[in-house]
């Protein structure tokens, strides 16, 4: 879908990224106006699930376009783009721990930033060497990413969060 918007429609990476970001903001804005919240804790009626899954698809698409824009058009390459998106996530984490900014807003910022980070990491692992990648096959690249994810899950201590209702899940 990102290639359709950026290439087939001729908007380019920058234009496609902006169009898709505006669509995502529109979906989240419509969800907020209908439900009064864009918290994932409100995703249960089918109408709200449509908003959630539409936001997921549009954020995935915009993330792919944004990753290509930063890596290719801006010229940072896959490593540089990965650092930009990882830094954005680090800043979002810092804002979560050291400010009182809306947790829902920070969730969506982090959620959206993981999309271009994942796309950039995937491109870095499987694109040819002469395009700045490591030239791993898609299955090997997927295995590397899965290993990193599992390793992080095992290394980072998991703790129960606070449920909005004040009741901790069992």
Structural notes for this entry:
This protein has one domain (2-155). The chain is built from 6 helices and no strands. It has helices at residues 2-8, 12-35, 46-73, 77-98, 103-126, 138-155.
Structural features:
globular
What's the SSE blueprint?
Layout: H1 2-8, H2 12-35, H3 46-73, H4 77-98, H5 103-126, H6 138-155
- Tell me the number of helical segments per DSSP (H or I, 4 or more residues long): 6
Q: What Rg is obtained from the alpha carbons, in whole angstroms?
A: 18 Å
Average pLDDT reading: 88
Number of strands: 0
Q: Quote the beta fraction.
A: under 5%
Overall 3D form: globular
Number of domains: 1
* N/C terminus separation: 39 Å
- The helix fraction, in percent, is over 70%
Secondary-structure element order, N to C: HHHHHH
Structural category = mainly alpha
For the largest beta-sheet, the strand count, sense and barrel status come to:
none
- Given as residue ranges, the uncertain stretches (5+ residues, pLDDT < 50) are 166-170
Brief digest:
With 170 residues, the chain is mainly alpha-helical. The protein is built from six helices and no strands.
